[in-house]
Design brief:
single chain; about 300 residues; alpha/beta; Arc Repressor Mutant, subunit A; D-Maltodextrin-Binding Protein, domain 2; 3 domains; seven-stranded mixed β-sheet; two-stranded antiparallel ribbon; 10 helices; about 25% strand
Length: about 300
């Protein structure tokens, strides 16, 4: 049997990620160390938990039962630790918060300030990952909360997701563009306008792509940015236009950025900022209270002037 809880986390991580390499990266350990630990568990149990192959690692029938039991043990231990940390119904002690890259630089300062103001005994631990990885971490119990953009792609079964605020999309153009001097633009004005997007894997790409379909803009599929800062620089260089969330404007379109923004006429496209946690978490009621407290500061940061 596993000799410690960490080994249970290793089993769950390999099952979730499908390869030892990806699991090791998520766990921030070396792949050989992870392989050794999993092999030790298999030796103690007397069975193969994973079938290794060129395509990755998949759980054997016996391994599926082991991984399911490991998840249950980790959830119960996490519940025990959290209950022990409860103090007068307030959040206290370590609190792991995951944030997606297209939210972290813009909303995280306000979220951290408000959380620490309300719960000074909390020890925030922050992690920045893409949505798919955050969902894996949330289910594995390696993070407690996730700040995401909805609609959330993928399976959200077993998660509770609370909307905090609408984050409207605005049109970002290079300075001097013919549309730059106009007020709110009608959707018809954007027909065929070449739009830059983030690379695959960012949920903001999916949200912006859906918005492009609504407003009739065309996507420049061959030109993709790795993050919003790069996307803004491409726009400033005259390579195209893009849709930016309102929360990112103070940073990405500050004075001297070379970018002009214009709002779109109704119905204005938007994404939704949301906070997610495991529905079975013993601290779910406290997370709901935290979400309610974060709503006002997040709404303020998502407001378009």
């Amino acid at each position: 049997m596993p000799s410690n809880l960490r080994q249970l986390e290793y089993l769950v991580a390999v099952a979730d990620h499908g390869t030892f390499g990806a699991a090791a990266e998520a766990l921030r350990i070396s792949q050989p160390a992870l392989s050794t630990q999993v092999a030790e568990v298999e030796q103690r149990l007397g069975l193969w938990v994973f079938e290794r192959g060129r395509q990755g690692a998949s759980a054997t029938p016996e391994g599926e039962a082991v991984v399911t039991a490991a998840r249950r043990v980790l959830e119960e231990v996490a519940a025990l630790v959290r209950i022990a940390r409860e103090r007068a119904g307030d959040l206290a002690g370590p609190l792991a918060l995951g944030v997606i890259p297209t939210i972290a630089p813009y909303l995280l300062p306000s979220v951290v300030r408000e959380t620490m103001r309300r719960y000074p005994s909390v020890q925030l631990q922050l992690r920045e990952e893409r949505t798919a990885d955050l969902l894996v971490s949330l289910r594995a119990g390696t993070i407690d909360l996730a700040l995401l953009a909805a609609p959330v792609p993928g399976d959200v079964t077993g998660l509770e997701i609370v909307d905090l605020a609408r984050d409207p999309f605005v049109l970002a153009l290079p300075d001097g563009h013919p549309f730059a001097g106009r007020a709110r633009l009608p959707q018809s004005a954007l027909a065929g306008l070449p739009m830059l997007l983030l690379e695959e894997g960012h949920c903001l790409r999916d949200h912006a792509s859906a918005a492009c379909s609504v407003i009739g803009a065309s996507q420049l599929g061959s030109i993709q940015a790795t993050g919003l800062p790069s996307l803004g620089q491409m726009v400033a260089a005259g390579m195209g236009a893009t849709l930016l969330p309102a929360s990112a404007l103070p940073v990405e379109t500050r004075a001297g950025s070379g970018i002009t923004t214009r709002r779109l006429r109704m119905p204005e496209p938007f994404r939704t900022i949301a906070l997610a946690w495991r529905a079975r978490s013993p601290r779910a009621s406290e997370y709901r209270t935290l979400a309610e407290g974060l709503r006002a500061p997040v709404e303020t940061m998502c407001r378009v002037e």
